[in-house]
Amino acid sequence: xxxxxxxxxxxxxxxxxxxxxxxxxxxxxxxxxxxxxxxxxxxxxxxxxxxxxxxxxxxxxxxxxxxxxxxxxxxxxxxxxxxxxxxxxxxxxxxxxxxxxxxxxxxxxxxxxxxxxxxxxxxxxxxxxxxxxxxxxxxxxxxxxxxxxxxxxxxxxxxxxxxxxxxxxxxxxxxxxxxxxxxxxxxxxxxxxxxxxxxxxxxxxxxxxxxxxxxxxxxxxxxxxxxxxxxxxx
Length: 234
Known about the structure:
The protein is an alpha+beta fold. The chain is built from 8 helices and 11 strands. It folds into 2 domains: 11-66, no CATH class; 77-232, CATH 2.40.50.180.
């Protein structure tokens, strides 16, 4: 013979502090002040925690715990993925300092007179510190790519300015990106050789390419990138 569990009394919702019937009041409130101090409320909470698990709950968690856990490989690196024109690139997250909305820096960018270097866009004020604003598109030799059917406002909606550290302490480089995906973790084993069809300038700065979300992402050599930027603005 089985016995049914005694239903949990929820007097705190009727005559207690959470009760909807204002004309009723619990006689114990003058002693315990609040329902959470009452033994009825405490016992109800204990009964809730100690109740038997349903068969559906047991089956669900049995399946979850039975799944093989995916272990992160040693040597996995953290990168930030971003887009320049129609191509995707990645740099080590250790290099990045912040991402800024393009609208916030338009008035902070100052062109340098008598400088026709296509890589150097000008000087930019970032939180009171002067940084060099550069074009990675020019450095990598990327061609302009306007997606068919996409309006100018739609293209600029994702644009951001990315701030990275320079080789020297306190040095900042700022460059515009057409779109930023965010942080991603990748293992070097996923890297493939750079195809011969890739532009020579891009190949020079690329350590390896891997497939992400059906897109090819080029992992850039940050040391060579910073060295080349320094040389290009002198």
